[in-house]
Amino acid sequence: MHTRPSKLGVLGGTSLMELDLSDVIRHPPMTPFGTASADFVEGTLPNGHRIVFMPRHGRGHQIPPSAINYQANIYGLKKLGVTHVLSLSAVGSLQEGIIPGGSHIVIPDQLFDSTKGLRKRTFFEQDLAVHIPMGETLCPEFRTILIRSANQLEFSRVHTTGTLVVIEGPQFSTRAESLFYQNSVGADIIGMTALPEAALAAEAGLHYGIACLPADYDAWRLGQAAVTADEVKAGLAGFGDAPLRLVNIVTEMMYLQESCACAQVLRGFAVHTVMEARPDTETNRILGVPFDA
Predict the structure, then answer these.
(1) Which candidate in 109, 113, 188, 216 is catalytic?
(2) Catalytic residue flag (residue 216)
(3) DSSP 181-219
(4) Rounded to two decimals, what is the model's pTM?
(5) Residue among 80, 202, 187, 85 at smallest CA distance from 135
(6) Selected catalytic residue, list 218, 230, 241, 280
């Protein structure tokens, strides 16, 4: 199988606020979609691979989930030549068998959107009618790389599938909500940032995957106190440097197969606007909108 060069972008959440990088170049956060969460930090990992890092909550964790400019974050990564986006996310466990605290990791294959419509969901709000498929929003080929990478670490269990439900936040779930997501939706884990981040990455033709670090049991366990920020912090502490090591391993395994469909998502019928009516702008070109037959 032919391969071509790839470049990793890392979106760090509560579980990863900074990376040990050398030869750093800081790219300003301004984009056509507004200001990103922070400067885009391009640098070299200890293993010699060049990546771009973005703390989605900003420096010092200042930005709550609903206020993150997901459009600017994803667009900036795309413009800097990123091909793959690794999201590192702290999550709550909705299943007894997904144990928080550092021994388990989940590489989900499905998302369930329970946000409230407050977030910008698409790059194409005017001038273009774009309808991308969402059945496999989390790139299957990149998921395979994440699973293989996680298996090289000391986790007692790598969950290779799972449904991640995304809530608006910033409050944690009520017990009724937690039980609903568990029993009616059939979700396995719960978080606050994967959408619209994953959908925007898909629109931009990026290979997007999530490594979920279970930090708590959310609120569904009867007789147990509901989750608190202190509990999440303690649960994440159990992962130690595993998120940093995972990033390094992923870059060693990355490749970009020419057969992968993610980069071609806007080809074909995804863009319904007729060719002669498509605005030929730099922004649309960077996102990959086709202007030829």
Answers:
(1) 216
(2) yes
(3) IIIII--SEEESSHHHHHHHHHHTT-EEEEEEEEEE-TT
(4) 0.95
(5) 202
(6) 218
Q: DSSP for 67-131? A: G--HHHHHHHHHHTT--EEEEEEEEEE-STTS-TTTTEEE--SEEEEE--S-S---S-SSS--B-
Give the residue carrying structure tokens 């605290």. Answer: 101
210 within 8 A of 108, measured Cβ to Cβ: yes
Residue 241 bears catalytic tag: no
Rounded distance between C-alpha atoms, residue 232 and residue 52, angstroms: 26
Q: Is 1 exposed, middle or buried (0-12, 13-18, 19+ CB in 10 A)?
A: exposed
Give the model confidence (pLDDT) of 84-123 as tens digits: 999 999 999 999 999 999 999 999 999 999 999 999 999 9
**8 Å CB contact between 206 and 254:** no
Task: Give residue-wise pLDDT tens across range 15-27.
Answer: 676 788 999 999 9
Residue type, 192: M
Residues 6+ apart with CB under 8 A from 77: 9, 11, 40, 52, 54, 85, 204, 206
